[in-house]
Amino acid sequence: MSDFKKLLKVERLTGEIDIPGDKSISHRAIMFGSIANGKTTISNFLMGADCLSTVSCFRKMGVTINIQEGQVSVEGKGLQGLEEPTDILDVGNSGTTTRLMMGILAGVPFHSCVIGDESIARRPMSRVTKPLKMMGASIDGRENGQYTPLSIRGGNLKGLRYESPVASAQVKSAILLAGLQTNGEETIVTEPHKSRDHTERMLRAFGVEVYEDEKSASLVGGQSLQATNIFVPGDISSAAFFLVAGAIVPDSEIVLKNVGINPTRTGILDVLEMMGASIEVIPHKEHSFEPIADIIIRTSTLKGTTIGGDLIPKLIDEIPVIALLATQAEGETIIKDASELKVKETNRIDTVVGELSKIGANISATDDGMVISGKTSLKGNATVSSHGDHRIGMMLAIASCITNEPVQLEDADAIDVSYPNFFEHLSSLSK
Ligand code: S3P
User: Fold this and answer.
1) How many angstroms separate the CA atoms of 291 and 283, rounded?
2) What domains, with CATH codes, occur in the chain?
3) Phi, psi angles (nearest 5°) of residue 428
4) pLDDT tens-digit readout, 248-271
5) How far is the C-alpha of 193 from the C-alpha of 163, rounded, in Å?
6) What order of strands is seen across the sheet that includes strand 216-220?
7) Which residues line ligand 1 (CB under 6 A)?
8) Using N-to-C axis directions, what is the helix angle for 390-399 and 422-429, rounded to 10°?
């Protein structure tokens, strides 16, 4: 049953929040800890539903994972130590769990079956099943391995040189994780634009030699992972909602603490700067090979811009909230080269354009993005929906901070996927 939440305009937003752990990094810490030798500890782990799906899948493969107050420990079993699951591996709503785990399952000599929710069932999986089959894994699934449910029998992999047609860290990571399980062979993945490199960085933290340059990443199979301690930085994709909120709500100043600023993820900061926002980034020292900063954002006068090309993979998850930002900028904002939005948790071109239109935005869909004209005064008195997509839900909740009448948000629970304390943070900043 879908739930409704009534959201009210706020006067201003001020204060400081600690952004919850990065979703991409939390998934990887569980997975790499599970296939490492020894005990890995993870601090600031994201307790969102997606990352808990990863925990549950690896527990089903015999890994002991203890969770206590944001502190997680994983008793690694080594790459050869995972056990054949007696139950299906349910990934819930999580594309990262599905695709990265497939890379691990491709190399292990047992059978497994992967299934998820109705959003996962619509998302393309042949982008990983195809290269993994080329490496020697036996994979089947609905429509020839294009969609879940998927069934995998792994083992006996050979190295691969792969030119990925999409810039996708999930695809790159799945191939590298399979490549680790070859017998000393090299695996290289090249992409049209560089995608997030958390896998490469974290594998190094686990003692694996990984090479990366402008557009490719490679490693040699047969290397083992040694357990380590991982600190998960705050998720810049979660911080993005409050960066936009701070910029568009009058009289605001928000301090976001401990945000990961890996350069493959900071497109939102570039866009805020391009649009003229008042933003300050105060770097700290790195943790687990990932750079971290505090970020201060203040209410700003914004101007429209054009976003495309290499910038897209650096902000792909932030586009829904960037579209909202653009409604408050003078002039036109064009988002292009972003057709990947169509295969996210929802078709985010359709859901962003549809929902923002309901509250009066001047926005239209294009084949590979959207065009927004501003500045528009957003109206309330509308029922909007997350469509079960966490980032659409949070974008709409931030939009409601500046609508002149209340907004009803349908399916607000979806937000738990990546930011379980989102509404607490929003109300702690609301004045
Ligand atoms: C992710 C990669 C991105 C991103 C997703 C998380 C990851 O997906 O949209 O939220 O953790 O590797 P793609 O690799 O499909 O672009």
Assistant:
1) 8
2) 4-20+233-429 (3.65.10.10), 23-231 (3.65.10.10)
3) -70, -25
4) 999 999 999 999 999 999 999 999
5) 11
6) 161-163, 186-190, 216-220, 210-212
7) 24, 96, 168-170, 173, 195-196, 316-317, 340
8) 20
